[in-house]
Amino acid sequence: MLTDFLRPDQPAAGCELCRNSGGALVWQDDAWRVIRIADAAFPGFYRVVSRQHVAEFSDLDAAARAHAMTLVATVERVLRDALAPTKVNLAALGNLVPHLHWHVIARFDWDSHFPQPIWGTRQREVQPPAAERLAAELAGLDERVAAALSAGA
């Protein structure tokens, strides 16, 4: 795994996303990284994470905000095309980790929490496991995400 996921002049002491990649690194440019979260219940779960320590979206200039949203939309489009989810959830909370990032999560009507948020109450047990139910394997999905981001970034 790449370890240069942060710009070395920007880390903030005590910030989880400044110290750790936050997941499997799929793609990065000078300003952003895209990671896949290892969550067995939600295998189509990606994050678009700022490579500098910024707490709020409004801290970015207009060009950086537009670039961030292009990345979020690109990840969403790949998930929609590759997995045909029931819905894609987008969230930018940062309450516990005040480091700018977006959650991009493929959701399915069969997933363990649907229609609740992934942080909500479990609605059902899922068998076979979620990753086995996807229309694409995770390694191939990561490659598709990376290729789309590289083509449009």
Give an overview in words.
This protein has a single domain (16-152), classed as HIT-like (HIT family, subunit A, 2-Layer Sandwich), CATH 3.30.428. It is 29% helix and 18% strand. It contains four helices and five strands. The protein has a five-stranded antiparallel sheet, covered by helices on one side. A hairpin with a 3-residue loop joins strand 1 and strand 2 (32-36). The longest helix is centred in the middle third of the chain and has 22 residues, at 62-83. The model has no long low-confidence stretch (mean pLDDT 90).
Key words describing this protein structure:
153 residues; alpha+beta; HIT family, subunit A; 5-stranded antiparallel beta sheet; 4 helices; 5 strands; globular
Task: Profile the largest sheet.
Answer: 5 strands, antiparallel
Here the CATH topology equals HIT family, subunit A
The number of E-state strands comes to 5
So, CATH architecture?
Answer: 2-Layer Sandwich
Averaged pLDDT: 90
CATH class reads: Alpha Beta
Distance between the termini: 21 Å
* Order of neighbouring strands in the sheet with most strands: 1-2-3-5-4
Uncertain stretches of 5 or more adjacent residues: none
**Helical proportion?**
25-40%
Count of helical stretches: 4
Strand residue percentage: 15-25%
Q: CATH superfamily membership, which one?
A: HIT-like
CA-based gyration radius? 15 Å
Number of domains: 1
Class by SSE composition: alpha+beta
Shape: globular
Helix and strand element order: HEEEHEEHH
